[in-house]
Specification:
Low-confidence stretches: 6-15, 36-48
Distance between the termini: 87 Å
CATH architecture: 3-Layer(aba) Sandwich
Strand content: 25-35%
Radius of gyration: 24 Å
CATH class: Alpha Beta
CATH superfamily: ABC-type transport auxiliary lipoprotein component
Number of strands: 10
Shape: elongated
Length: 214
């Protein structure tokens, strides 16, 4: 009888532990919104003599993951945090590079390549992604920042033709991961608009320039 009571108590204890275990938390995954388009459109090219290789963006170690990062400017601006239940669908560098390629391809009729295993490019656009983060100015107000450095290189001579730093900021509509993703989608469009304008000036004359119309 004593053994039976011990077994009964043990089973009751184990069942109680199982009951209080928390259910697995849902992890939300995000991409840059496809619905938030640029305020401008770009003319396509009639001809294209040269090709452009856009390399995968290089990132610092802290950005080489799928976390959605944020900083508390009012508390400890040097420290980076990440949302526990929200993630990017892929790394920010992968998402941003893909979006840049898609936008430039739309203006070059496909004369943009990902790597030299497909074809030899005439020019290379190297991208360093230095910052992609949500910054909390106060507990209830935040903005996002994207910072990149681009280098345009003559592929045959390895000569640096031009280099520029880009930084965009956008207010977040809400102080959470959803607000960060929405604002980063808008900020990325603004950044790519500026990048395309810069490329239109810097690319050699034998490449038809990216032209903007409203």
């Amino acid at each position: 009888m004593k053994n039976l009571m011990i077994i009964t108590c043990a089973l009751f204890f184990l069942s109680g532990c199982a009951a209080i275990q928390k259910a697995p938390q849902f992890i939300a995954t995000y991409d840059f919104s496809k619905e938030i388009s640029s305020h401008h459109s770009f003319k396509t090219f009639q001809t294209q003599k040269k090709s452009l290789l856009i390399t995968d963006a290089a990132v610092p170690v802290w950005l080489d993951n799928t976390a959605i990062h944020y900083r508390l400017l009012y508390h400890n601006p040097a420290q980076s945090y990440s949302y526990a239940n929200s993630r990017w669908l892929a790394s920010p560098a992968t998402i941003l590079t893909s979006k840049i390629r898609d936008r430039i391809v739309a203006g070059t009729q496909g004369q943009v390549i990902k790597n030299n295993t497909v074809a030899n490019a005439d020019y290379t656009l190297h991208i360093d992604l230095d910052e992609l983060i949500q910054v909390f100015d106060t507990p209830n107000e935040s903005h996002v920042e994207i910072a990149i450095r681009t280098s345009l290189i003559d592929h045959s001579t390895r000569r640096l033709l031009a280099q520029k730093d880009f930084l965009t900021r956008q207010k977040s509509p809400s102080a959470n991961a959803e607000g960060a993703v929405f604002a980063l989608s808008i900020a990325s469009n603004q950044l790519i608009d500026e990048l395309i304008e810069w490329l239109a000036v810097q690319l050699p004359p034998d490449i038809p320039s990216l032209q903007r119309h409203h």
